Amino acid sequence: MQPDQHHGATPPHGKPGTPGPAPEGPGAPAGTGVPVISLTGARAQLGGKPVLRDVDLTVRSGEVVAVLGANGSGKSTTVRAVVGLVPLSAGRLELFGTPLARFRAWHRIGYVPQRTTAHSAVPSSVREVVAAGRLARHRLGPLRRRDRAAVDRALETVGMLERARDGVATLSGGQQQRVLIARALAGEPDLLIMDEPMAGVDLANQRVLAETLRGQVAQGRTVVLVLHELGPLAPLIDRAVVLADGRVVHDGPPPEPVGEHALPGHDHVHPHAGATADAADRAVTGATTPGLL
Ligand SMILES: Nc1ncnc2c1ncn2[C@@H]1O[C@H](COP(=O)(O)OP(=O)(O)OP(=O)(O)O)[C@@H](O)[C@H]1O
């Protein structure tokens, strides 16, 4: 099945009044900016097995793109390749118009990896974890006032400022996710990449995360979200890229929730084996939880 290509067209959920940090100036509609991510013909192998097979992913300044697909379809590997954590065996990657080999502006990218359930053995405080998000911005030495202010702003954005001195291990999973997002925001990135930000997060924390993301999108931040389903984030998404078995099987408007998947609280788990376009069709259906946004 050929991907339904949709690069750069006006998004179905265009956000009126979005200022956008696009180099072509404020007011440029999402999806019409310069490519922030340009991944073409990407192939990658993990454990000797092909995991990405000719993946194309173009994300333009100001866009909010969901990467969807069943378990094992290659979503995490795709975004890990984008941030240089997985080497490509073929294909080309440019970030902000610069080939990966020459790209140095890592402070422009905030990456929130998939959260593991394992508690950190390192007794870091919330503030220490978030301050690590400034590392790409500031060189060695004590945090300057500007860095500290950015850390405070990020903590405030996710509603964790009062918990700044607490140990991360004392937090719930959802609160830890908020801290990881604050770490990414502390670097004041132009591009925010989040891998399954809602996974394992309770409803109250999902509300905070959704509100945080809404604020980022309103500021014109370019956002890539790996999601199992659009769920409560559906109103924010401009475009969906669906993977199945390491290939893009859809690149276009986000799907409408249908059938049982539209029921609130529907918990979607996909089989690992036999990822096909049909599996991808199932994966793109989203459960909406009313009132989150
Ligand atoms: N480090 C690794 N070594 C070997 N195989 C891996 C590794 N990481 C991932 N894989 C395999 O690569 C394939 C794609 O994995 P990936 O995590 O990208 O999928 P995904 O779509 O993000 O899945 P999920 O929704 O379960 O997170 C899977 O078959 C997975 O088992």
TrEMBL record:
Q: Where is this region: Disordered?
A: 1-35, 251-276
User: Is Nucleotide-binding among this UniProt entry's keywords?
Assistant: yes
Give the Enzyme Commission number: 3.6.3.-
- Organism per entry: Allostreptomyces psammosilenae
Superkingdom of the organism of origin: Bacteria
Instruction: Quote the Gene3D superfamilies the UniProt record gives.
Output: P-loop containing nucleotide triphosphate hydrolases
Arranged from A to Z, the UniProt key words for this protein are:
ATP-binding, Hydrolase, Nucleotide-binding, Transport
Secretion signal span? none
Note the SUPFAM superfamilies from the entry. Answer: P-loop containing nucleoside triphosphate hydrolases
Would you identify the family this protein belongs to, as annotated? Belongs to the ABC transporter superfamily.
Q: What is this protein called?
A: Zinc transport system ATP-binding protein
Statement: the UniProt record of this protein carries the keyword Transmembrane helix = no
Q: Which residues form the ABC transporter domain?
A: 34-270
